[in-house]
Amino acid sequence: MKPQFIALIAALAAGPAFAQSTITLDSFPAVEPQADTATAQTEAPSALASCLTDPTVCASSEHQAGWTPTMGDVQNIRLVDHEAEPLRVSTSGGTSAEMAQSLPSVDMEILFDYNSDAVRSDQISQLSELATLLKTEQFNDYRFLFLGHTDAKGSAEYNQDLSARRAESVARLVRGLANLEDGRAVAAGQGFTHLKTPHDPLNAQNRRVQLVLVPR
Questions:
Q1: H or E segment at 18?
Q2: Taking the model in full, what pTM does it have?
Q3: 203 Cα distance to chain centroid
């Protein structure tokens, strides 16, 4: 018997079994489309965002402000790039109660190399997060005041100058990242006049940059 004929007979004999094993789309159970969990879930706000939008519920010891400036305090703060000019704040009438009003603020640990005012590259990510937050609509009615703070090591003059330069470096970087117009992000130095841990004046927590929201 010819090989071709044998192969034909074998194929015909296997026909029913082959037909029973045929896979079609009906063989699969219906699959419901599932939502993309990455987009369906609302991302929880960061600790920085939570503390800035509602300082009264801030649970982060890093971001809790060691000093809460008032409208009056801000009025008397002289800016880095305009040493002779204090920061003007908006008050409807300028009553004593309004000037005593505390302003929303957060502390941030921005690391610098020793005696340097250049923002380290490993600090860019948290400042980028901050810039993204500040350019959202909820902050349209504010200016952003960055205050530099130091620990108590060294002279008052040295720390005042260093804190001012570091605060300006942060403000300049945030202005660029958030594409803010001139005057929206300003800076001033506080030296060691407002320690976060006055009982431990050399503690690293005193070396910080504070962001204050100032109505405009």
A1: helix 15-20
A2: 0.76
A3: 24
Residue type, 143: R
Give the model's confidence band at 96: pLDDT under 50 very low, under 70 low, under 90 confident, else very high. confident
**What is the number of other CB atoms lying within 10 angstroms of the CB of residue 16?**
9
66-215 classified as CATH 3.30.1330.60: yes
The two counts, helices (H) then strands (E), for the chain are 8, 4
pLDDT tens for 108-161 read 999 888 888 999 999 999 999 999 999 999 999 999 999 999 999 999 999 999
Q: Distance between CA 186 and CA 78 in Å, rounded?
A: 10
Q: Domain ranges in the chain? A: 66-215
Give me the sign of the Cα torsion angle 84, 89, 94, 95: negative
3-state DSSP assignment of residue 200: coil
